[in-house]
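quick one, two chains, predict together pls
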Amino acid sequence: EAGVAQSPRYKIIEKRQSVAFWCNPISGHATLYWYQQILGQGPKLLIQFQNNGVVDDSQLPKDRFSAERLKGVDSTLKIQPAKLEDSAVYLCASSLEGLAGNTDTQYFGPGTRLTVL
Amino acid sequence: AQSVAQPEDQVNVAEGNPLTVKCTYSVSGNPYLFWYVQYPNRGLQFLLKYITGDNLVKGSYGFEAEFNKSQTSFHLKKPSALVSDSALYFCAVRDPSNDYKLSFGAGTTVTVRA
């Protein structure tokens, strides 16, 4: 079974530029998550999709971050404009669950390492 | 308040010795607990989880973890560590009182010396 795919793996941009990340979840997984992992910290949830609908985006800085999952499969996360503090690894994860499937395991992609100069 | 804590930033053990990575949680109700491992420049890999039932959970690569409700702990263990176990380990909890969001500890770096 193929895992969660993410691209690009690395990205270096200057502050105030924009950047986009792509994620393709495990086939058949209804739920998709984007996490931000700052160096030395555990991942922090940014947004959760159930199929193509947003379940939770309470931690997403909506003035600069946006995400979509238009067809309920792959997803993009965008930052515009980027700030220095956005330097982090952006992880995508997916799980089988419906909303009541809280015991399901989240499987993570390799992440995109963003450096903002 | 932090839902899950990993009290040790680093754990160092010799190859062949037992390995323990500590995790405590502070959520109400019945939490769902997970361990993940992260190798350099890699994503998080799932090791094991506790949902209900037997307090001792066995997972991948010879790891196991014991759920202790009275001590609110979920320590990760391996009887005989390998150099290849050197990595960053994260404990995580799905909190019933917080819409079952997955919250991670800060991570523990494990170094196994030959």
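The radius of gyration of chain B is 13 Å.
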